[in-house]
Amino acid sequence: MPALASHRRIRSRSTKPSPAVGFTTAALAGVTLLSTQSATAAPSEPKPSVEEVQKKVDDLYRQAGSATQEYNRAKEATAEKRREVETLLEEAATRAEKLNESRRALGAYAAAQYRTGAVTPTAALLFAESPQAYFDQTQLMDRMTDQQRTAVSDYETQRAAAAKQRAEATKRLESLTDSQQALRVSKQNVQAKLAEARALLSRLTAEEKARLAAIEREKEAEARRRAEAKAEAEARARAEAEAEAERQRQEGDQPPPETGTDTGTGDGSYAARAEQVLAFARAQIGKPYVWGATGPSSYDCSGLTQAAWKAAGVDLPRTTWDQVEVGQRVATADLLPGDLVFFYDDISHVGIYIGDGKMIHAPKPGENVREESIYYMPIYGSVRPV
Predict the structure, then answer these.
(1) Which of 23, 321, 327, 384, by CA, is between 20 and 30 Å from 12?
(2) Minimal CA–CA distance to 212: which of 54, 340, 319, 5?
(3) pLDDT tens, residue by residue, 332-362
(4) Which residues are catalytic?
(5) How far is Cα 182 from Cα 176, in angstroms, rounded to an integer?
(6) Which of 70-98 are b and which e, b meaning 16 or more Cβ less than 10 Å from the residue's Cβ?
């Protein structure tokens, strides 16, 4: 008997990958993608060195100093405009009262006209208490006509003046608003610079802060050496000048020069004023720097110089930019106690020279008024207020 053929159906293989195979493929793809991204990703920026941080912080403090002067100038402008507006408002109130007086006078004349205008002369005579009373009233109305013209003219004058004053007050108020906006912007600039400097310093490790302190000490030592060299040069120059003066006196048999307060400025009172300035400045040593402050408990740099010279009876402008324009320019080699020394190309800092290459100044936020070498910062120039 022949063998029967097999009728079993052959099952076809599924082409759908198993879950395990799909997961493996996705994982491999992810690894490849991550590897590619890692290979092409930009390297992170290197951490700045302590020296770079120190330079950046100094620059931020300098920028904050410049922004402080902008704030001081905007503050002065705002205060001046506020005073102008207050004066205008007071004048406008007085003008309004005069206008009301003129208006009341016109109202009185208008009422008088109304009372008499509706009555004929014959009726006025009939109703008058007496013929004399009628003639008196007629004369009064004739005189009131001239007075009324004056009242109308005065009213128009006062009304025009009041309108002009209102327009001027509106203009000044707009200017005041602009100044207040500039003041806010200047304040924000100062705060932003100081916040950035604090953020940089806060990220330093203890070791880096120690290194930064060492850099500051090195900088101070170098400034001190330069100040001492300046003091020695000044002493030699004085000794040579005195020796030369003595030699000339002996050769010419001249009397010795008079001693007094003359400092070579041509004004014998300058030294006396400088003593008052320095006495005031020394009394402020130890008080904190606060930007925008003018004393008596704290100062910024130009606030201190302004207050010190005011103690000697001299009014200086508020900002370093304006103070540098006052008085006589002097070379660093010719500095005398009391002179103002300005720093940086943007003239954002100032100190009071005390001699021997040193000054008293309000340094920067977080520090106090102190004595320091004038060579601690790049010198822009110097002024002798006279």
Answers:
(1) 23
(2) 54
(3) 989 999 999 999 999 999 999 999 899 999 9
(4) 301, 349, 361
(5) 10
(6) bbbbbbbbbeebeebbeebeeebeebeee
Tell me if 192 sits within 8 A of 66, measured CB to CB: no
- Token pair, residue 156, equals 């128009």
Kindly report the average pLDDT of the chain as a whole number. Answer: 76
CA-CA distance, 361 to 341, in Å (whole number)? 10
Would you state the structure tokens that stand for residue 215, as one six-digit string?
């850099």
Helix (H, G, I), strand (E, B) or coil at 379: strand
Rounded to whole angstroms, the Cα distance separating 34 from 52 reads: 34
- Please say whether the beta carbons of 382 and 340 come within 8 A: yes
**Tokens 């799909």 label which residue?**
22
Q: What totals of helices (H) and strands (E) does the chain contain, helices first?
A: 8, 6
Instruction: Compute the half-sphere exposure of residue 230: CA atoms within 13 Å on the CB side of its CA.
Output: 22
- Residue 154: how many CB atoms within 10 A of its CB? 16
Rounded Cα gap, residues 160 and 154, in angstroms: 10
Question: What is the DSSP annotation of 50-92?
Answer: HHHHHHHHHHHHHHHHHHHHHHHHHHHHHHHHHHHHHHHHHHH
Q: Report the distance separating Cα 288 and Cα 265, nearest Å.
A: 33
254 in Cβ contact with 246 (< 8 Å): no
Q: Which residue has the tokens 């997961």?
A: 23
Task: Determine the average pLDDT of the residues in 22-34.
Answer: 41
Is residue 121 within 8 A of residue 142, CB to CB? The reply is no
pTM of the model: 0.58
* Both tokens assigned to 202: 């806060």
Query: 256 or 276: which carries more pLDDT confidence?
Result: 276
Q: How many residues does the chain have?
A: 386
Confidence of residue 1 (pLDDT cuts 50, 70, 90): very low
Condensed to tens digits (0 to 9), the pLDDT of residues 224-268 reads 788 788 878 878 888 888 888 888 888 775 555 554 444 445 455
Beta strand ranges found along the chain (DSSP E): 328-330, 340-343, 349-355, 358-361, 370-373, 379-384
Residue appearing with tokens 């600039």? 189
Please give the full DSSP string across 274-291, using - where no structure is assigned. Answer: HHHHHHHHHHTTTPBB-T
